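[Meeting: bench + compute handoff]

Bench side (C.D.) handed over the final construct sequence. Compute side (W.E.) agreed to return the predicted structure before the next meeting so the bench team could plan truncations. Sequence as handed over:
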Amino acid sequence: MKRKIALLMTMVLLMSTLQMNFVFAGEGTAQVENATTTAAVENGTMNLSMDDAVKLAIESSREMWKIDDGIKQAQEARKKGSSAKEQAETLMSLSLEQISGIKLATGVDPINNYVDTLLAKNGYYITYADTQTKQLQKNKELLNLGIEIETKSLYYQVLVAEKTIEINEGNLAKAKEQLRVINLKFNSGSATKAEVLNGEMAVQKAQTDLDSSKDDLEVAKLNLLNKIDLSFDTELVLTDKTLNYVPTADINLVAALAKAKTDRPEILTALNNLELQKIETKAYTAYYTSNLRQNKSAVEKLKDAELNIPQVYKNVELDVRTSYLSLVKAERALVNMDKTVELAKEASRINKLLYENGMVAALDVLEADTQLAQAEIGRYQLLISYNINKLMFDNSNLIGSSSGK
């Protein structure tokens, strides 16, 4: 009997020192090896694909290390929770005589907090650790996706800047050619000095636009280099320059909604909270009578957790539908800009013909060329915008439309 009491005394002391408040998101000390990618740096120049950029950004994320460390802590907490459950089951199987003997011998009540002991017996802390592990794993998935979206957006910004330079170079060449023609006509007496000045101003504006777009490219490259944690002196050569356009008519909204209702983290959180609240409410209502505040509060919390489930599903559906409508809106703007570019090309062509026949001034030709360049740049920017919206919608089963902005 003395040996049994001694064993029980040891278990009581272990229970009294067991920490039940789990911490999963502290500063990690994880060591991460330098990962390799297919991107190659030679003489300070890197040929960078979009996938390589995403890999580099993920590998350099300190937040990813913290989540990995948190998952390890959650797994360790589960072991403690399992131990607490076994100890609670043993303590609650004791007779009143055994409990009194332990209290008399140690001065410690083996069940001084009956509710916590009951929670441990019902597996609350095991369930809590399990749900936190799932949440952290989902958070890791979300972090990966968030980094991917941000990195691709920065990659797209570099592509936009490069395309803008290409278009502005073409516009500058047109302005210079038009100025050459104006000067020839001026020398032959068929053009005025005002037309020459307008031509020179057009060349100056085109040069300014080109210089500005080159500055924008440098800024865009610096932002991308910062995200993928490379030296600012690295010269980037982007290899993925083709942008795809998938019409919204080919997108399955119903399938996206179904997948979101299965995978979204908000739903996982709500379901986990309900599972934990059921265990907590069961323990509180078993210990406290129905007229006590603790009992009523536990029952009310369970009702709130149950009512929250359908609202979360509704919020997720609203978010996916909003993401889809944003994609439709981006597509409409892109289609309209395609038409604008075609009109601008035709206007430029006609103005050149009219000018050659002396029916319009040189300024009309210069303005038409400038408007065409602006339309082409705008069209490419809208194509980028559409691709980003498409990326957000494709991943709406995991991330909300407001999370990636």
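W.E. noted at the follow-up: The radius of gyration is 34 Å. C.D. will use this when planning the next construct.
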